[in-house]
Amino acid sequence: MDLSAWWRSARPWLFRLDAERAHEMTLGVLKRWSALAGGQLGAGDVARDSGLARERMGLRFPNPVGLAAGLDKNAEAVPAWQALGFGFIEVGTVTALAQPGNPRPRLFRLPDDGALVNRMGFNNAGAEAVARRLRRLRERSVLQVPLGVNIGKSKVTPAERAAQDYRRSFEWLGELADYVVVNISSPNTPGLRDLQRVDEVRRILTAIQGPNQRFRQPRPLLVKLAPDLAEEDAIECARAALDGGCAGLILTNTTIDFSGLRSPTAGLSGGLSGRPLFARSTAMLARLRETLGPEPVLIGVGGIMTPEDAAAKLAAGADLIQVYSGLIYGGPGWVRELLHGLPRTAAR
Length: 348
Ligand SMILES: Cc1cc2nc3c(=O)[nH]c(=O)nc-3n(C[C@H](O)[C@H](O)[C@H](O)COP(=O)(O)O)c2cc1C
Prior knowledge:
Elements lengths: L2 H12 L4 H18 L17 E3 L2 E3 L3 E3 L10 H7 L3 E8 L11 E4 L4 E4 L8 H13 L7 E6 L9 H12 L5 E5 L14 H17 L6 E5 L5 H13 L4 E4 L19 E4 L3 H15 L4 E5 L5 H9 L4 E4 L1 H6 L3 H8 L7
Parallel strand pairs: 3-4, 3-13, 4-7, 7-8, 8-9, 9-10, 10-12, 12-13
Antiparallel strand pairs: 1-2, 5-6, 6-11
Flavin mononucleotide (FMN) binds next to β4, β6, β11 and α10.
């Protein structure tokens, strides 16, 4: 399929639709594409260029560009993401209980800023249903790239039972994941970001490490943080995560700071992603790399819209990077454009 030609004709039409409707239609196409090929879609060419491969957390990443959480919450189109060239795929956020998320509209494009605002609220099919889907993928040996599963707290679970809720999701999904992300940074579940405190991080990780350490091969864990944390708080949380046995961090989630945008945002609420997030999320990544040293795995995400942005994120200290908004604006062929523009290194 000539993805660039398809995107040139489809984009104006998709961008006239409500943003979530366009997302659902595109995901529907990718889902059918995944099913048609029997799930056996390989990545090939630039996505497997050995100069881009790297090993982290005991996993081999054919290239460092991953799909960020939130685009395929229920793991419906995993083979298609692989075929588009992603070097790893993160599904979720999945919660222990299935939930509908916030009322619509809840996803908005700000094209003048190259940005999105969302207040989805962890709409997802729940840990059990996603586990069933992932088990089928595993049984068919479809996956050629690492698969991360991002877990969050169910909305109805009170804050004081958060650790048990994460543990329940982990018990369904941990075994099926190559790595697991503890998401405590979405702005769209009331109180979730309050879990970004040392005692809460410890409690959640202790709850998950119980079942994790019983696996023959415990899964690498990462914590995903918000870019709005004060520097000292981010460092404290990061240290608590690493002390709790995490392999690293994902930096960052969306921001609630809408300042400096060209687009009118009166009445908009939620998390901002895309170009305006780049500087803030990259500064946090650089600061944490400087503070934590070379050992922890840092996955850089936020505002990557061009190959230069991707290279700058890696230069700021990211081992791996992820994208979401750039893909919405750039279309399916954009992943390969990023990969073509990345500096090659000796495989490491
Ligand atoms: C519509 C939408 C939904 C998202 N849902 C999730 C989610 O469920 N879990 C999560 O950890 N991050 C979620 N994110 C955040 C992204 O994973 C990413 O951290 C953020 O968008 C910054 O990257 P970007 O600037 O490349 O979009 C979502 C982002 C968007 C735009």
